[in-house]
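Morning!

This is the sequence you dropped in the shared folder:
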Amino acid sequence: MTQPFTVACIQTTTGPDVAANLAQTSALIRDAHRSGARLIVLPEVVNILDMDRVALAKKVAVEADDVSLAAFCALAAELGVWLLVGSLVLRHETALNAEGNPRFANRSFLIGDDGLVRNRYTKIHLFDVDLGNGESYHESSAYEPGDQAVLAETPWGRLGITICYDLRFPHLYRQLAQAGARFLSIPSAFARPSGKAHWHVLMRARAIENGCFVFAAAQCGDHGAGRLTYGHSLIVDPWGEILADGGQETGYILADINPAQVDEVRRKIPSLMHDRPYSGL
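The structure's back. Tokens below.
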């Protein structure tokens, strides 16, 4: 459980072409593997980022038929790596919109080194915001939220799986840490205005307050139709130190992870043992 390993976070500029996105991401996965990564984390919506939801609906499939998921499973088995697919845009299996068409799911997958899906997590908190600069997002109008927190077993310890906007709901991470999470995955496609103001602060806060490593693979660049993402994929240690920052270009970052550091930090500041019930609100 405490054996050190190397993690990689892939940073992409995903666009509306599924095949092109898969080719770009697969090449980066292979590069990260050659650099020694045993766990490779991909960003949110890594299969497609298309602001035209009518067009998007024609390009995505249900989980069982998704070509990107099948390709990532095969690649994980070929390379013998653990792969956290930050998220895929999928057709939801059961939820329909007012017109009777399938809604979307924003879903993360943990794939073992045998190519099998070990865990899946559907984004709970949907990004419904108005950033005040002409940017507004209303994910709930097209996406069906999940309702299950996910704690996954890896060869190095338990991993709490989340996605992007979940970052702003610290109680979720507290509960994952209390349940045994030593690592937190927060793959994202963060908007630039909020990214500049909040990204580094919130990622470090989730690491510090829970004594966990944070792996945050991110989208970067210009995705078309006015969609710009912040980049700066991060790997953060349990003390809140940034081990690697991806900047604003496509590529990947690496860090050597010593899981024993989680125990060391939690011995110094055992706040997970100090939670108390309270009343008065």
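Headline: Residues 192-210 form the longest helix (19 residues).

More detail when I'm at my desk.
O.
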